[in-house]
Amino acid sequence: MPVAGHGTRLLPATKSQPKEMLPVARKPIVQYVVEELVSNGIQQILFVTGRNKASIENHFDHDPELFRTLTEANKQDLLQETNFEAMRAHFFYTRQRLQKGLGDAVLCAENFAGEEPFLVALGDSILGLNAVSRAVSRMAEVFDAQRASCVIAVEEVAREETAFYGIVEPDASEGDVCRVVHLVEKPAPANAPSNLAIAGRYIFSPAIFDMIRRVAPDRRGEIQLTDAIQLLCEEGRPVIAVKLSPEEKRYDIGNFPSYFESFVEFALADPVYGVEFRRTLERLLAKTPARTGVLV
Ligand code: G1P
Predict the structure, then answer these.
(1) Mean per-residue pLDDT for 56-76?
(2) Which of 114, 130, 208, 248 could in theory staple to 204 by disulfide, Cβ–Cβ 3.0 to 4.6 A?
(3) Which residues does ligand 1 sit against, CB inside 6 Å?
(4) How many CA atoms lie within 13 A of 140 on its CB side?
(5) Helix locations, the chain, DSSP H
(6) What does DSSP say about strands 44-49 and 90-95: parallel, antiparallel, or unpaired?
(7) Rounded distance, CA 282 to CA 193, Å?
(8) Residue 296 — very low, low, confident or very high, per pLDDT cuts 50/70/90?
(9) In angstroms, what CA-CA distances link 207 with 47, 93, 114, 284?
(10) Apex 120 CA angle, 114 and 123, nearest 5
(11) CA-CA distance, 181 to 193, in Å (whole number)?
């Protein structure tokens, strides 16, 4: 799980805290992502971190004092939600020392992955409401069945949003699983080969590492993972896109508008506070003139 980025699109909230630790309703984003992966059978999670990301390690660490306090107060729910030792997962951490892009962050996992296929899950994207989604399992099935070199989760975005994402060009096949013939990172709408955006989950064979090494840095000195996948396509290796279903919707925390939307949707679905929060929102909306968005 690459979590090394600065989160500059979320400043000032991310000046001294990782964007992956921002809460969506009751939990930090990174906890949802871990829960999603574990529920899909992933048991070893390597975080590729950077400076200022220590709170991610702390979050998944054991806290004896908190454990004692919650036990004494008999707060079973909270004990369960913070007891990461009970999860069938092992956590590992390594640092990306220089900010050289997502491709370089993935390269930091080369020794960890070894000769095995592996999943990359971006730490700022949650799949499914409350991280309930089988997308990663579906992707793994496609990876095995098609002997793929890479399987990418994709979702449709509005044409005018293509410049925020990696965009894939699928072949002519119909349906939710298609071969990718070409990819481009953040194209202007006029140059985008489709409106299918890379949605933060990838499965790779270790062949990706050599491709990453061959990618030249972009204008900002970053090595793009999308460019490395394009090299897989150019070598004729199978790169497959799996479209997310509506229930597997991606909650993107990389920018404020979608962070706000994600927070509100998760808060509305909260089993304890959701109903009350809905009433509060309705009350606030009734007071808000739609044109300005200013409360009066
Ligand atoms: C990264 C990837 C991009 C992908 C996006 C999904 O971009 O480079 O291909 O579509 O994540 O969130 P970033 O958001 O890090 O700029």
Answers:
(1) 90
(2) 208
(3) 102, 122, 125, 165-166, 185, 197-198, 200, 225-226, 252, 254
(4) 13
(5) 29-39, 54-60, 64-72, 76-82, 101-107, 110-113, 135-145, 207-214, 225-234, 256-268, 274-287
(6) parallel
(7) 40
(8) very low
(9) 20, 22, 11, 52
(10) 135
(11) 10
How far, in Å, from the CA of 58 to the mean position of ligand 1? 26
* 222 alpha carbon – ligand 1 mean position (Å): 12
Nearest Cα residue to atom 1 of ligand 1:
165
The DSSP symbol for 163 reads G
Q: Are 278 and 268 in contact (CB under 8 A)?
A: yes
Instruction: Please report where in the chains the tokens 């454990």 appear, as a residue.
Output: 67
Q: How much distance in Å is there from the Cα of 164 to the middle of ligand 1? A: 7
Q: Which domains does the chain have, with CATH numbers?
A: 8-268 (3.90.550.10)
**Nearest-angstrom CA–CA distance, 179 and 174:** 10
Residue 21 has pLDDT above 60, yes or no: yes
Q: Which residue has the tokens 């975005």?
A: 157
Q: What is the pLDDT of residues 132-177, one digit of tens each?
A: 999 999 999 999 999 999 999 999 999 999 999 999 999 987 889 9
